[in-house]
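hiii, so i know i said id send this last week but things got crazy w the move. better late than never?? heres the sequnce for the chain we talked about at the cafe, plus the structure i predicted for it. fair warning i was half asleep when i ran it
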Amino acid sequence: MPGDTLPPHAVEAADRAAWRRWLSRHQGQANGVWLVMARKGSDHEAPTLDEAIDEALCFGWIDSKQGRLDERRSLLWFAPRKPKSAWSGPHQRRAEALEAAGLMQPAGQAKVDEARRSGLWHKPPA
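okay and structure toks below
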């Protein structure tokens, strides 16, 4: 998509803090969003992949499919984690580090706690 045209349900965040603010305000209202990401070598301001995933986990969201926007920007779909989704090893480690740092928000902590209670925390993904 040329220029500054964004697809429906797309969000631009200049940095990690802006993405965290968006999640804080919209976590219970949105079914998912395309986060605009900077493509490698681009000067577009956006959170890094690691930052975007970490903040999403803090609010009980998860990353999934990717899309191309233009030469400078790509898209990454984030949505609230489904109740019966297994946690991958990398996401478990990230969540544990976020817990230790005191960054988890109530919605994200609730997803972690439920996964631990239900056995989805250590269940390998299908």
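btw The chain has a mean pLDDT of 91. thought thatd interest u
miss u guys!!
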